[in-house]
Design goal:
GO terms for molecular function: exonuclease activity; metal ion binding; RNA binding. It comes from Methylobacterium gossipiicola. Keywords: Exonuclease, Hydrolase, Metal-binding, Nuclease, RNA-binding, Zinc. By secondary structure, the protein is an alpha/beta fold. It has 3 domains: about 280 residues, Metallo-beta-lactamase, Chain A (4-Layer Sandwich); about 150 residues, 3-Layer(aba) Sandwich (Rossmann fold); about 90 residues, Roll (Ubiquitin-like (UB roll)). Helix content is about 30%, strand content about 25%. It contains 16 helices and 29 strands. Strands 9-8-7-4-3-1-23-24 form an 8-stranded mixed beta sheet. Helix 4 links the parallel strand 8 and strand 9. The longest helix is centred in the C-terminal third of the chain and has 20 residues. The protein is globular, with a radius of gyration of 28 Å.
Amino acid sequence: MTTGQDELVFVPLGGVGEIGMNAALYGFGPAKRRKWIMVDCGMGFAGEEGFPGIDLMFPDLSFIEERKDDLLGIFITHAHEDHIGAIGELWPKLKAPVYATRFAKSLLEARRLSEPGAPKVVLKEIQAGRRVQIGPFEIEYVPVSHSIPESNAVAIRTPHGLLLHTGDWKLDPTPILGDVTSEAAFRALGDEGILAMISDSTNVVREGRSPSEAEVAATLRELITEAPNRVAVTTFASNVARMRAVAEAAQACGREVVAVGRAMDRVIGVARECGFLDGLPDFRSADAYGYLPRDKVVCLLTGSQGEERAALARVSRDDHPDVTLAAGDRVIFSSRAIPGNERAVGAIINDLVNAGIEVVTDRTKLVHVSGHPRREEMAEMYAWTRPQTAIPVHGEALHLDEHARFARAQGVPNIVKARNGSVVRLAPGTPEVIDHVKAGRLFKDGNILIDAKDRAIPERRKLAQAGLVSVAIAIDEQGEVLGEPAIDIIGLPNRGRGGQPMLDVVIECVARTLSGLSKVKRRDAEAVEKAVDRAIRSGVNEAWGKKPACHVQVVEV
C-alpha cells in the first residue's frame, strides 16, 4: 500500500458475504496514520445447525482494536440487532463514542446496556439532517424508510469526496410511521457528486417493488375485524409500525391489545417515549389476557422466528402461564422466517394447526413486507444518486454478485466486489481492493467469547454426530491393570447392527487391547491411551458404522 499520501479506504469487517454482523470501517490518511470511523456494530444468530451451543455471533474486530486510538466514532444507522447487537459485547475493546438517533440510543440502553455487568458505553444522540464534523469526516444522517423507526443512510464527506452508506432502506410512500426515503434528498447528494455508494443487496434478486406497510396494515385490519375469536399476531419486536397497525385495527373493532414477551415490552416502552404510539391506549399486560372475552382481545407476541423460549413457542406447547389459544382462534405470522429458522417456525405452525388454530402467513395473505428494496427501487436510487463507484454490501455471495451486475447495468462506471476483510482504496485513483486484513467471527459461548479456532465447536459437532466413549484405566508401576476399567458411553445407540449391546462392544475392545499389550508397553500411559482409543473407534465403527469421540485416561498407581 502507498504510505506517504492521504488515502480514503473502506474496510468491511462484517456484513459483506453474509447477512448480519454489520461492521464497516472508513479510513482517511496515510496508511500508517489513518483516522477511522465505524458504521454499525451488529451481531448474527448462529442457530443450532453447525454451531451447537452457540446462539450469537459477532464480527472479529481485531483489526480496528489494534488501532482503537484512531477510531473516532461508531455511527449506528438503525436499531436492528444486526446493526447494534454487538455494541454491548465489543465496545469495551474499542471505547469510541457511539452516535445514534434517539430511538436507537434508547433501545440500545433498554435492551443491551441495562443488563447486569453491561459496559458504560459513551452514547451520543445524533439528529438527521445535521452535519457532525469528526476528524477528517463530516457525517450527515439521511432518513430512509425501513422496518424500524429512525433508519438512516449515512453521507460521509471527506477531503477526497462524498461517500454514501445507504444502510437498510426501501421506497415506501406510506410507511405508517417514520420517514419516507426522500427523492429530493438523494438527488441533492447525487448533484453534489458521490464518489462511492455502499449499498444494501438483500432483495436484489427480486423483481418489482416491495409493497408498502400501509398495505399490510389494511390486511391486518381485515383479518382482525373479521375474526370470530381470539387473534394473536407475532412479528419482529422492533417493528413498531406493525405494532401500531395491529393496535389501530384492534381499536377500530373494539378489541384490546395484550403485549406478551420481554423484547416486545422493551420496544413498546421506548416507542411510547419517542411518540411512535401516541393516540393509542396503553397495551394490557399478559396477566389481563385471561379476563378478556375471546372476541375482544388481540395478542401481540414475540417468537416470530421460532425461538424456543419466546412467548409464541410456549403458547404453541400450551405451557405459557398466562396465554392460551384454542380451536377457532387465529394466529397471524406478520413476519418471514430468517434463513435457518424455517424448521423452528414450521414446528410451531404445525403445533398450532394440530390444535385447530387457524394460521395465516405471508404465503396466503399480505401480512408482511420486507424492509429492503427490490430491483425497481434500487434502479431509482441509482438514478437519483449517480455514484461513480458501487460497492454491494449487506448480502450473501449470490446477492453481492447480482448487485454488481445490476449496478453496472445502471451505468455505474466502477464496481468493486468486496468481502469481509477487503481493503478498498476509494481515492485517489480508481477504486480497487488493495489489501486484505483479518476478519472473521466470534461466538458467544455462555458468558465468554471464543473465536473460530477454538476447539469447542468442532468437538461439539463431532459429539453431536457420533457421541462419546469415556474410559478410565488404572495401571501400576509393573504394568498390571488394577480392577476393571470404568467405561461410560454417551450418545451411542443401545445395540449394534448384530444386536450386541454397544457397551459390551466397547468393553470387549478395551479388554482385548489391554491383554494384547505387554507389561512394558502398559507402563507407557500415552501409548495405552492411543491404543485403546484406536480399538474403540474401530470396533464401534464395525458395529455401528460411526466412529465416536473417545476420552481415554490412564491413571498410574
